[in-house]
Amino acid sequence: MSQDSRPSIVWFRLDLRLRDNLALLAAGARRGPAIPVFIWAPEEEGNWAPGSASRWWLHRSLTSLEASLRGLGSRLIFLRGPSLRSLREVAAGTGAAAVFWNRRYEPLVSARDWMIGESLKKDGLEVDTFNAALLYEPWRVKKTSGAPYQVFTPFWKACLASEHPPAPAAAPARLAAPRKWPASEPLESFALEPGTDWTNVMGSTWEPGEQGGLARLQKFVKEAVADYPDNRDRPDRSGTSGLSPHLHFGEIGPRQIRHALSALHGTSRPRSARAVQLFMRQIGWREFGHNLLYHFPHTTDKPLRGHFADIPRRADGPALRAWEKGETGYPIIDAGMRELWNAGWMHNRVRMIVASFLVKDLLLPWRAGAKWFWDTLVDADLANNTLGWQWTAGCGADAAPFFRVFNPILQGKKFDPDGSYVRRWVPELARMPARYIHAPWQAPSAILHAAGVSLGRSYPKPLVDHQQRRLRALAAYEQAKRNSRVQH
Question: What does the pLDDT look like over 341-356, one tens digit per residue?
Answer without folding.
Answer: 999 999 999 999 999 9
